[in-house]
Amino acid sequence: MILLLLALASPSFATRVSFEDQPCPLDDQDTIRVFERISANTHGGFDSDGATYSSQGQFRTYAVATCGQSLFSLYAGDVGLTLSPEDRQRLGLALAEERAALKDPGAPTVWERYGIAARMYSELGRGPLFLADLWIEASWTARDEAVGVFLGLRGPAAAREALRLGETEWKSATDRAARKTLAYNLARIAHRGGYGPERDRWLGEFEALSPHTPAEATALARFRTMTTTVEPALQDRAIAELRRGLEARELPIETRMRATYLLADLLRRRGQAKEALGLYRLVMVEERGSKELRELATTLANELAG
Fold first, then answer.
1. Range of 198's domain?
2. What gap in Å lies between CA 176 and CA 79, rounded to an integer?
3. 200 and 273 housed in the same domain
4. Tens digits of residue pLDDT in 110-150
5. Other CB atoms closer than 10 Å to residue 52's CB: what's the count?
6. In 44-144, at which residue ranges do the beta strands (DSSP E only) sit?
7. Are residues 124 and 195 in the same domain?
8. Does this model's pTM top 0.90?
């Protein structure tokens, strides 16, 4: 039974990591903590936009390394780069702007650190498709915060089947506590599948089963904030970079099809179904592209087409 799969709130952030403190690339008087993954798995499944889940936690939480004082941030693999005096000056000015925009510079969120990294990479001349991937990964950290891991949910077809089974279970469930857990878990499944209206419906069903404990009220508020404000803003940044990257005439076909698919899926998740459908269809008919992407695009295009 779906309602027994997971408890109300189940974020799993126990991926085994080690870390090392190194001199900050921007200021060697500061330090940067660099994490390395020791072990993880992908038993949690995957989402249509490429997010994979480890049942032990998500390494993307640690993937961006951040200097302790300045908040200068880069992917851990780039911490060893050498910056010229001109680079340091330019990056320092950009970093000051990013810090000024933070709600709490003393405790930046994971996705805010990704945002700082995106600005740093932009200043260093990284291209739009690289930046798009970074913003997409940042959006996954917000999704992790909202919905955690639902074990075995492998892609949109599995999410759709789980929602179908959950609907049947909902009609027969009479116990109030069970209905609460079921509604909340179905909202989580719907969000991971990118089905916004269904997510909102199930959150509404959960909310209607009041009164709520303080933990339940907190979980509901966090879910709504992450999925309707934080994650969409990060997705919009990714969409802008994908559009910019796809303007390039000379792109390898695999790169173009992947970017086209990701743009389609982000647009679908943002409620722009008509444009998403057209882009999915471009991926479907491109035989030189990835078979896996063609199959995913077909599944999602068929849904959008009704």
1. 2-8+155-228
2. 51
3. no
4. 999 999 999 999 999 999 999 999 999 999 999 999 998 88
5. 16
6. 45-46, 52-53, 64-67, 73-75
7. no
8. yes
